[in-house]
Amino acid sequence: MSYVAYNTYADIHSIPPAAEMRKITSITKSQPVSYQRAVKKSRQSAVRILSWGVDSASVSVSTGTYFAYRGEYYILTVEHGLISRDCNAIQIEADGVLKSCLEIIAVDGRADYAILASEKIPNRIPLNFPKDFVRTKRAWIQVTSALHGLIYTGYPNTIGPVTLEGKVMGVSADEFIYLNSYAWSGSSGSGVFDFNGRLVGYIVAIDVGRTEYGFDVLENVILVSPHYQIDWSKLFNK
């Protein structure tokens, strides 16, 4: 009896602290090294975007991707996640640390993106623009091909960061990538990566379609906007 009690006690005290299990660098070692690196890039560049209504108590929560260009720091997120166009009503959160929006560089409602200038975030590692982005014709053909694997990290339902994997289902006529995975409110703006750690695009919506209950949200069909839809000129000319 004492032997069983000792083993139970030892097992309990071998459990790591919750903070260690929640670390952004807690990544499986069971996958190939290239896959681990891709997951690491996805997790270490993901941030939560908080946007407040200037004249109301409403708040919108979405996800953003932290990147660097010419020594400055930026966030790529979705336009529909910003209640206000006032940078003072927007904050960037990573592991409980809040950083300020310094400037709204670009906003586009049609392509549904926003680029924010940000303070340096010490507990995140920025992507390098454009090095860490899909760029060549060959790469685009590869990452948009049917059943190609992609991953993203986001903050669905205000939890997270959580990392999910999915497969390409196809590309729409207006050039959105259909991804078979899962997403919920708050996932919008999440950066989507290939297994080589290159940014493909960002989540803009969950699809809606006909079900046995009528038209409903299809939480396993995600619309991803490829980053070539973004007009980067405002960043270049800043």
- Determine the N-to-C terminus distance: 71 Å
Run of helices and strands: HHHEEEEEEEHEEEEEEH
Instruction: Note the main sheet.
Output: 6 strands, antiparallel, barrel
- What would CATH call the architecture of the largest domain? Beta Barrel
> Could you tell me the strand content as a percent range?
35-45%
Report the count of strand segments: 13
Number of helices: 5
CATH fold descriptor of the largest domain: Thrombin, subunit H
Q: State the share of residues found in helices, binned by percent.
A: 10-25%
Sheet with the most strands: spatial strand order:
1-2-3-6-5-4
In CATH, the homologous superfamily of the largest domain goes by the name Trypsin-like serine proteases
Unreliable spans: none
Cα shape: globular
Total separate domains: 2
* Mean of residue pLDDT values: 89
